[in-house]
Task: structure prediction
Amino acid sequence: MNKLQSKRFVQARTDRKAGRLQKSLESLLKLLKELPKSTEVRIELGVTYYGQGKLNEAADIFYKLHEDFPEEINILNYCGVTYMQLGMFDLAIQFFKKYVGKKNDDYEAWINLCCAAGKNNQFTDAAFYAMQALSLKPLDSKAHQNMGSVMLALGRRQDALISFQTALDLDPKNINALSNIGNIFGEINQPENALAIYNECLEKSPEDSPAQSDLKYRMSFEYMKLGQLDKAWDYYDHGFVMTDMQSRTPKRKFEVPQWKGQPIPGKKLMVWREQGLGDELMFMPTLRDLLEDHNDVIIECDPRLVTTLQRSFPKCVVRTQAFYSPPNGLPVIKDYDFHIPLGSLLGIYRRTIQDFSKASPYLVPDSNQVANFQARINSRKPKIGICWRSGTLNAQRNQHYTPLSSWGPIFEMRNEVEFVNLQYGDCERELFAAEDAFGMKIHRWEDVDLMNDLDALTSLIGSLDHVVSAGTAVAQFSMAVGIPLSLFLPNGHPWVLLGQTQYPWYPNNSVKLYRPEVGQIIDSVLPQIAADL
Result:
């Protein structure tokens, strides 16, 4: 770099630090053409892109720098920070771990590593990283806030509250610590108190900032618990701004506008799936409302649902979700004029609880498969499908489920009914143990893949007389097919109830909800389910 180039480089850095990012960027791009191998110019360009929010461009530069200088610690840190902002937490963690391996006294790096691990649901690792940060700066508010977030994720609410309150005592302006106290109120089902704290945080956050989007997304669930749906759905749409594992996913990008419910005659609309399979099915009754208004609709769904949805919505184009992997996220197919995520249809067609009276079963099973399953069971007794847990288990989720070994009260009906397994995943040991303990047969077949062949699952459910299930995708399939359901959920005020005492998403009486009394485990509802059956 000659003297003139060096002077231009210093000016570009000065412009960047003064917030004149576009001017800095233009200067650096010219310098890069002259000095394509300059490490200084490339790093400064990456930092400038990062400052502009052009994270893909910054990541591309930093990763290429890492390939050239794999042991350079500052580049490791730049890569970690950028990939964390992109929501690519596994990659960010790898870079941060390499960095702290070389510089283990960097407080901010331990904070970042804790944050990335927490957002990636690696809470045990996050606790270790939080402790490392705390040991370096025991009187720093952010260190205690980090520890509180980890404790809250691990279900240790009292420890979390102590950490957050300590963070606030050290820095009364720590909005993140205050908002996390709001999270605790949300978890213990005090939505009014949670909202009061969140609103206080909103007033202290920059207007239209990611921090405000984070708060509004959290607030949406508290409004759902209170049944204030107009506010809930408006705030729920902020969920795509966030990058943690609890936000709305996938993070798709579009070159066409999102549909907001306005008339679009002659235009094609693409509706795309979001969240997990259970949420996708729960939101899907709104498609019938949509199709009353629009006859040119594409549905992009979970690939396992394509066959069933094409049969159920024959006038639509139904296909597998089609977009490039993040951070790009752009569509593979561009044959539509507007798009909308499935959950956002709620804000158009379900503004009040009364709007849910429109909902009705919408999945059409394959009649040949239904007949085949009925022939396989070959019994005139009532047929009851059972599902007792999710396929994903952890300490927090386990409170929603009950072991099959606790189903004795229901299995006492073994001489009057036929039980059919609907539990997906590896559950053969549990089924065999239950059959042995209760002296009964639970129907299932090796050639039926309940996890991946969802068209077969739909038809199997369509062959039954009743389903007993935890709050899983199986319950959603049962409601979508229209089979009577006994649904058990944990105590408290889960947001899916939308402030109601009974399950509100379908208006008919085919869904009966069971929840334990305060202080009781979820197993306690099984005798009542058995009595009602």
Remarks:
- The first strand starts at residue 269 and ends at 272.
- Strands lie at 269-272, 297-301, 317-320, 338-341, 383-387, 418-421, 442-443, 466-470, 485-488, 511-514.
